Amino acid sequence: MIRFICKNCGKVLDLEDKIYQKAYKDHELCLDCRPGRGGFREGAGRPAIGMTKKVSITLPKEIWGKIEKEKGKSSMSAFLRDILVDWEEKRQ
Ligand SMILES: [Zn+2]
Fold first, then answer.
1. Residue 85 Cα, ligand 1 centroid: separation in angstroms?
2. Phi, psi of 24, rounded to the nearest 5 degrees
């Protein structure tokens, strides 16, 4: 069994190796969160939530500690996305 955690919805799946290799390897999203049918293809369909940009952020250890505590079981990306979407809505 291989554990797969969706980076979008946070769903945790315990998968048979065969299924993992076929449908989940090299993916960050579960089937429900992938755009279109028949799996994700670059440029095909619309992404479920938008564009992905990779960032690295340096923060004091105490702040990371607070973030870890506050986010609970959410993924880091889901937690930060909520904050940023909120920020963007408020500044309009
Ligand atoms: Zn998902």
1. 19
2. -120, -20
5 Cα to the center of ligand 1, angstroms: 8
Q: How does pLDDT run across 64-88, given as a tens digit for each residue?
A: 999 999 999 888 988 998 899 889 8
Of 10, 14, 25, 24, the closest CA to residue 76 belongs to: 10
Using the mean position of ligand 1's atoms as its centre, give its distance from the Cα of residue 34 in Å. 7
List b or e across 36-71, with b for residues whose CB sees 16 or more CB atoms inside 10 angstroms: eeeebeeeeeeeebeeeeeeeeeeeeeeeeeeeeeb
Its pTM stands at: 0.45
3-state secondary structure of 5: strand
- Tell me the per-residue pLDDT of 19-50, one tens digit each, with 9 for 90 and over: 999 889 989 999 888 876 544 454 555 556 78
For residue 39, the one-letter residue type is G
